[in-house]
Amino acid sequence: MNRLLAQLSQLRAADLRFRDLLKLCVARRDLVAGRALHALFLKSHVPPSTYLANHFILLYSHCGHLPLAQQSFDEIPQPNVFSHNALLAAYARLCHPDAVRRLFLRIPSPDLVSYNTLLSAYAAANGGAYAGDAIRLFSRMRYLGSDADGFTLSSVISSVVGAVEQFHSVAIASGLGSYISVNNALISSYSKGGFLFEAERVFDEIFCERDAVSWNCMIVAFGQHRQGLKALNLFQTMVRKGFEVDMFTLASVLTAFTAVKDSAGGAQFHAQMIKSGFAINSHVGSGLIDLYSKVGWIVDARKVFEEVHNPDLVVWNTMISGYSLNDEFSEEGLECFRRMQRAGFKPDDCSFVCAISACSNLSSPSQGKQMHGLTIKTELPSNQISVNNALVSMYAKCGNLKDASMLFERMHQRNTVSFNTMIAAYAQHGLGLEALELFKVMLDSDNEPTSITFISVLSACAHTRRVDEGWEYFDSMRQKYNIEPGEEHYSCMIDLLARTGKFEDAKKLIESMPFDPGLIGWATLLSACRTHGNLEVGAMAAEKLLQLDSSNAAAYVMLSNIYASTGRWDEFAKVRKLMRGRGVRKKPGCSWIELGKQIHVFVAEDVSHPRIKEIYLFLEEISKKMEQAGYVPDMSLVPIRDNIAERDTRLGYHSEKLAVAFGLISTGEGVPLLVVKNLRICGDCHNTIKVVSAMTGREITVRDAHRFHCFTAGSCSCGDFW
Predict the structure, then answer these.
(1) How far is the C-alpha of 721 from the C-alpha of 712, rounded, in Å?
(2) Where are the domains of the chain?
(3) Under a CB-based contact definition with an 8 Å cutoff, are residues 156 and 131 in contact?
(4) What would the DSSP string read from start to end of 397-450?
(5) Around Cβ 209, how many Cβ atoms within 10 Å?
(6) DSSP output for 135-176
(7) End-to-end C-alpha distance for the chain, whole angstroms
(8) What is the pLDDT of residues 96-136, one digit of tens each?
(9) Residue 579: which H helix or E strand, with range?
(10) Is 48 exposed, middle or buried (0-12, 13-18, 19+ CB in 10 A)?
(11) pLDDT at residue 41 above 80?
(12) pTM of the model
């Protein structure tokens, strides 16, 4: 008997040691040791233990190994509610909310932890996609009489954006408003919904002691609303009060620097972090990359990326986004996307949006179509609508308006960005009427127009010469939609009035503006003056433009071209001399065309291309045919007054003409061409390509710095009005 008691005592001691070891593996997330313990447990033929099985589920859940967690759950003969909750937590951490919900519905008697776990999964979803589900689940809890706690309410609040005030009232009425987690959730949700004042009020009125999360939430809120100075002051207050600064705090402060685009301040903060010994982890690294990318310091962003040890998917996405924000680094963005895949990361919706944006910048139809195919093969768990919006924009910017429109029509869900993208596509392609019609469809839907919407709408009015309709939309921004017109909206109206020759009205609008027109406004007016040959207003606009930025080459070039087109060569020479004296250089024009997945770049009077002799020969032949048909080049567009031969050469071999000629001799009949130019297409090239499209029966699209010109059968989609 004594021997039996001794054996039982030894077994209990061994069992306790086993449990302690298993708990230690869970706490340390030691998958290797945990699996060894699991193997030992299975080999010992001990009867199944729900307690141990639950801890194995926790172990595999914390280590991110969902299949083993599911297997451990399936081996339990009679799982209890803790078993279900442990597996539910694993799904919430690693799976789509829909999968978490399906598992939740299989729990016989869900408790508060079960409800809170599902609510946390809804809260983690992007963009409030599961706000309705969170509200319904919370209502069901209250209907069934289940008590909610602070975690419940904070998860619901984090899931919604539009109904924050109602849940704020619930928090006060239920007494849960004293929970710090509830207040933190309120600050974040109010901020995301655009209610910064309410977020600040919640922060100021927190009755309990604020924690580091509270300060971080408020710093991020200020950063999101471009109140960078307030965010930085709040950070300094936080430090003075003795709160420990962690990686989340640092990332929040970097968001503030990014909001105000304070590159110098951000760099100093980065230096201070290095001196203080903070390691650049994923959170801080992504914040630094985002800051440097948005201020144009892409080389510094890349250095930070290379310093991050084991970058996660967010860091990769931030770097790809940084490349795509800087057009000249778009090719590097696509290469970064491919490196990310080779590193074993599966692209998510953000990865695809950034990579597709890079394809748009390059105007590369082949790479864009490859990316589209990859999105179809990849099952995106959420936010498919953002990827579709990016694809619509990509096809439009690659000159393929037909596929852009087709994809837009096939979208099962559309949001405001979807309509904005398609309206902008129609406007940029010269289809102003279609853009305005789609805007009316948008107004009839549940999607409210934004300030970005009206930029495209007013641009469409400008290119269709609809002055009265433009004024109507402009006035409705403030009166009907409570949107304050910004610099770009006023610039669109200036463009509309100046394009239609209403220069006095344009000047009156400028005088009534609540702020200075800025570079965009004066450049818009100057461009219209060049089109109409209005020297007086053009000289005034150029003077204002140069006062704001004396290094702006476009102002010198447009003003000198106005003088040249009116035969005032002395004034032309003075402007060009002033330009040289100030060391201002005109940005060299270049055009490129993609054929056979290879991009061919041309500059004016190019001699470097392998087939340049064939290109020049083709242009000479087509020029003779055009002359025989009665075409006369517009020499006024080339500011060279004496040497006629030099004029002919300069005019005949512009980069866009070379690119079009190369495309025509390199492709079969009927194949449409897309040429991209980094500057505005010149008038003679525009006229020439119109004639060439009629003579060759080709559809030729030219994307210049401002819009698309689709040449078909001798006419252009812009209606010769650009």
Answers:
(1) 16
(2) 210-307, 312-413, 426-483, 486-586, 590-716
(3) no
(4) HTT-HHHHHHHHHH-S---HHHHHHHHHHHHHTT-HHHHHHHHHHHHHTTPPP-
(5) 7
(6) HHHHHHHHHTTPPP-HHHHHHHHHH-STTHHHHHHHHHHHTG
(7) 103
(8) 788 888 888 888 888 888 888 888 888 877 656 677 788 88
(9) helix 569-581
(10) exposed
(11) no
(12) 0.73
Location of structure tokens 């009015």: 461
The bridge status of strand 673-677 relative to strand 590-595 is antiparallel
Mean pLDDT of 518-537: 74
Give the pLDDT of residue 7. 40
User: What's the mean pLDDT in 680-695?
Assistant: 88
CATH number for region 486-586: 1.25.40.10
Work out the average pLDDT over 490-505: 85
Residue 89: pLDDT over 80 = yes
The mean pLDDT value of the chain amounts to 82
**Domain pair 210-307 / 486-586, same fold:** yes
Hey, which residues does 675 pair with through a beta bridge?
593, 702
pLDDT at 651 over 70: no
Name the DSSP class of 566: T
Contact 90, 63 (CB under 8 A): no
SS3 annotation, 338-378: HHHHHCCCCCCHHHHHHHHHHHHHHCCHHHHHHHHHHHHHC
Decide if 677 contacts 704 (C-beta within 8 A): yes
- Using N-to-C axis directions, what is the helix angle for 131-143 and 112-124, rounded to 10°? 160
Q: How far apart are CA 458 and CA 83, in angstroms?
A: 59
Amino acid at residue number 398: C
**Which CATH code is given to the segment(s) 210-307?**
1.25.40.10
